[in-house]
Design a protein that fits this description.
With 205 residues, this protein is an alpha/beta fold. It has eight helices and seven strands; from the N terminus they run ααααβαββαβαβαββ. α5 links the parallel β1 and β2.
Length: 205
């Protein structure tokens, strides 16, 4: 799979995560935080836009990738560039990436990992029982269908902004509260002005 060509100048956070994705050592959370743009020098949005154009919205950590591997086999839905699937597969995860390949954001879907073209409900039906990986769910009702389609006992690893922020609907979060058990939640590296976290949920019987 061809590696995307970077445009210069490259912001440090893009360079750091890019090196990791293309075979470099796992960065520490301290290194990721240090590579983030300074909120006071006007670089937050240029750096974040460049990051999104290459990878997507979430910033991973070694802990996140370990949790994905530990909960294999994995089905990533709405995988975007599929960079998380690439990192997880390199670390030993059995993972399938899926996306509808709708070009609505500034990145190209499926550029980092072999990705099957299908919507989330179809993917869950085709690959039953796998732990779902979902990163930065959109503010649209289709995301609720992911939770509806899941079977009792099935897990989901959710990467999202805080409730009321830039990810998912209120009903999506209500469904998590009502129909799922929260196994673990931990913070993730985030661009300034965002507050990302990862949670592992299991659907109630």
């Amino acid at each position: 799979m061809p590696v995307p060509t970077y445009q210069y100048p490259i912001f440090p956070i893009v360079n750091l995560i890019g090196n990791w994705i293309t075979g470099g050592d796992d960065p520490t959370e301290e290194q990721i935080t240090a590579a983030m743009p300074n909120r006071f020098n006007g670089e937050i949005y240029p750096a974040r836009n460049q990051y999104i154009s290459y990878f997507g919205f979430s910033v991973p950590s070694s802990k996140l990738i370990r949790r994905i591997v530990e909960n294999s086999p994995i089905l990533e839905v709405a995988s975007g560039t599929s960079f998380l699937s690439r990192l997880a597969a390199r670390a030993g995860a059995d993972i399938v990436a899926t996306d509808i390949f709708e070009k609505k954001y500034m990145f190209k879907p499926g550029i980092w990992f072999d990705t099957e073209k299908m919507d989330a409900r179809e993917a869950i039906a085709r690959y039953p029982g796998r732990t779902i990986l979902m990163s930065w769910p959109e503010l649209y009702s289709w995301t609720e269908g992911v939770l509806e389609e899941m079977s009792p006992g099935q897990k989901i690893i959710l990467i999202a902004d805080v409730r009321g922020g830039a990810t998912a609907t209120d009903r999506f979060y209500d469904m998590l509260d009502q129909d799922f058990v929260n196994i673990e939640t931990f913070s993730l590296p985030s661009f300034p002005e965002f507050q990302d976290y990862a949670s592992i949920f299991e659907k109630r019987p």
